[in-house]
């Protein structure tokens, strides 16, 4: 929200008060409070009839500093509040006549007492940002509505990322961003997943701890600052430090929650009925059998909305006219090796028998006069489940338990954004704060029932909406995109932004949700979709099975589905890292290469894990431009080796694209390509790419329970490569990519292979020495 008229003037009718004169600083063993008048105090009389603003500084965990700015602290503060996970922190505080300093880990805040209002945030002794003259402010609009604002310095060449799943330009500089969940598709400034956290290219993050609307002006109202504001008497935010952007995301997700690890089967190909299409069991079997007949590995079948009767969403009952034997149908599908997903939402239509149950028991959100809140947008007469009522949560979960007992393995938790604010919640929560927060309670309830019924490690959602903490309940998908190359590109931007907001696992509707893609877009999107964390064929008014597009589309789906299954040992280890460090599997280039300025603005390519660069193709002609950081990179699909630190322009058919492996990589490739969940360590092939002299590479292989089974390290000195393995209880091989022959192998044997020399360790050997020619 903008409060100024240009740089010098205030908008008419607004009263803006800034801290101008620090009057006192108090502190305890772990926090300090700064008291600042909004004018220079020259005499004791100046202290009367004026405003005293306060700033609390503390630390919830190492390398994180909490800042709370407030005017009047006596206001009632209704929930909800984001769930945070603080840890023990050793805080140092020093206060003298010149400065007051609070230190947490390597992060410090320094208050300069003799300079009006001048706050510096430093990491490892280097200033990263600060709050200066006229930056924070307590503001009243012409109607006396109160706001609190902060402005943090933005350096020359500094870029801002994140703020949730945003489809606008990847770099947020110059943008106005409203943290307010909306069902706006992927082609607007609105977002399903609004996260009040941004990441800076200078290597720090800022998290605004408010579930209600947060308004950002990023190098816009004041072009040298990032401004954020909320309505009310206080503003709380956290400065999050780290040695690298990855460390910042690690710290942010330590504070707000780490992503759970999705089951291995979720990484395979998902196929859905699509939204408004007609389907019954025969239709479903036609699709499932058609995939099998064409050797197209399928892992999950999803039933979209119309598995329930129209006008009755959600009653969680199968449409008996279309599915007279749902238990038998699900059993038959599962006998084919499939997992089952069912669409749900948190709305109860009036025609649903559950509406009366919910109304009579107080399980639905109410209006201020005590009526059930209803409208006709989406489902006629629908009400909204009140997840602040524990009994309503149990009631909602009980309906899902029936479906799980029938054979449903996961739920697509659609919607959760269209949440009214003129309502009353069971626990008295502030309805404005609940607008964004509602999705957290909704998805948490569904995730919990899956864990309770299926076991920890087996729960998975396909969620559209999210707020802070929602990353704990994966997977999320990008919402309603269109069948165009432009929408494919905006989808990539949305995924990259969400990944820099603490979310590890993300998907999208392959070939676009709205309309039906021409064959070329379908095939290009399949490449991108199967080189994403999760992969789903889904649409609105038409089916998405590949043979309805053309026969080459069948071949493309087969090739890239099998490719993804084959690299699951690498991908699943990357997924485990996502749960441990809060890193996205699909990573913006700046996250892996924060020292390479060329990577700062790249948004049409990404890293899948830390070793695979993917550059999707966004045109019918097959032309692509992409950038490679320093080193020798190898195209996994063609074997071509390219020198990095430069741009490339290429043309690709539908069976290839730039899928580049960074140098000094030991990539784990499994022996299975027909399913994503298998024994990754048994027969794994470790492909070694461009190992430089003096360099080393490591691959860790975990099983589907996330337990490490094998770790292999390759180190090179001159023409000798030393390979060491721990936990090698199952057979494995080493492939020297691009090296056809070797001079000798100690504790193993060499043979020629398709991609280079194949080294097979001797039985029981934990180390192998390879001498190159």
UniProtKB/TrEMBL annotation:
EC number: 3.2.1.177
GO biological process: carbohydrate metabolic process
Catalytic class of the enzyme: hydrolase
Gene Ontology MF terms: alpha-D-xyloside xylohydrolase; carbohydrate binding
Domain of life: Bacteria
Keywords linked to the UniProt accession: Glycosidase, Hydrolase
The protein, known as: alpha-D-xyloside xylohydrolase
